[in-house]
Write a structure and sequence with these properties.
Blueprint (H helix, E strand, L loop, with lengths): L1 H20 L3 H47 L13
Helix pairs in contact: 1-2
Length: 84
């Protein structure tokens, strides 16, 4: 994630230098496309990490509930067959 942010910062610096020194129209097009692609990659990475964290929280809660059930001395209820 840090590398994505460094790339975005570098692109921002290059865009700033482009406005000062006026490198040309081709550089602006390439810079904007690369900036959009890196931003999209960063958004996908953040979304994936959020989903992974949510799944991890659910797994932790599940093990906590299983521990509570087994500490009471009762057998956990078996999962029923899914209805098709």
């Amino acid at each position: 994630m840090l590398s994505w942010c460094i790339i975005l910062f570098g692109l921002g610096v290059m865009a700033f230098l482009d406005t000062i020194f006026n490198y040309g129209e081709i550089f602006r097009r390439i810079n904007s496309v690369v900036f959009m692609l890196v931003s999209l990659g960063l958004l996908i990475r953040v979304y994936h990490m959020a989903k992974l964290g949510e799944k991890e929280n659910l797994q932790n809660r599940n093990t906590q509930l299983e521990d509570e059930v087994t500490s009471r001395g009762t057998k956990p209820v078996e999962a029923s067959q899914p209805v098709a």
